């Protein structure tokens, strides 16, 4: 259980990023070393620095229990959105910046 929390909950509040698909908030290093707890099967961020940059954003608003962002600025690249759709995953952008 302690090891599981170490991969999910950020140890410090610097360099945090939010997954553009599920809004999970982790450090850049946590996404790179462990991937996204919810989306790894689809996004493949583990050990892939480029995918971490493409599939996460450092611009997000708010956090809630479980360390999820309320709003995440940015969108997944079109190729990833097409691949998600082909696999039956519906992508809903969590970018609320244009609604303000």
Question: Could you describe the 3D structure shown?
Answer:
By secondary structure, the protein is α+β, with helices and mostly antiparallel strands. It has a single domain (2-92), classed as Herpes Virus-1 (2-Layer Sandwich), CATH 3.30.40. The chain has helices spanning 2-8, 28-34, 40-43, 49-55, 78-86, and strands at residues 16-19, 25-27, 56-57, 60-64, 68-72. It has a 3-stranded antiparallel sheet. A two-stranded antiparallel sheet has the order 4-5. The chain is globular. The model has no long low-confidence stretch (mean pLDDT 86).
Top keywords for this entry?
RNA polymerase II complex binding, Herpes Virus-1, zinc ion binding, 5 strands, 3-stranded antiparallel beta sheet, alpha+beta, Transcription elongation factor SPT4-like protein
Brief summary of the model shown:
It is found in: Nucleus. With 100 residues, the chain is an alpha+beta fold.
Please trace the helix and strand order, writing H or E for each element: HEEHHHEEEH
**What class do helices, strands and sheet pairing give?**
alpha+beta
Kindly state the mean pLDDT as a whole number? 86
Q: How would a textbook summarize the main sheet?
A: 3 strands, antiparallel
The CATH class name reads Alpha Beta
InterPro entries: RPABC4/Spt4, Spt4, Spt4/RpoE2_Znf, Spt4_sf
GO molecular function, one term: translation elongation factor activity
Keywords: Elongation factor, Nucleus, Protein biosynthesis, Transcription
Protein name: Transcription elongation factor SPT4-like protein
């Amino acid at each position: 259980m302690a090891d599981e929390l170490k991969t999910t909950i950020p140890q410090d509040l610097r360099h945090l990023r939010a997954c553009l698909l599920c809004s999970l908030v982790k450090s850049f290093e946590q996404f790179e070393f462990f991937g996204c707890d919810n989306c790894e099967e689809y996004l493949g961020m583990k050990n892939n620095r480029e995918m971490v940059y493409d599939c996460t954003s450092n611009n997000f608003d708010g956090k809630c229990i479980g360390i999820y962002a309320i709003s995440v600025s940015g969108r997944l690249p079109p190729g990833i959105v097409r691949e998600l759709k082909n696999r039956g995953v519906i992508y809903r952008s969590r970018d609320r910046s244009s609604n303000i």
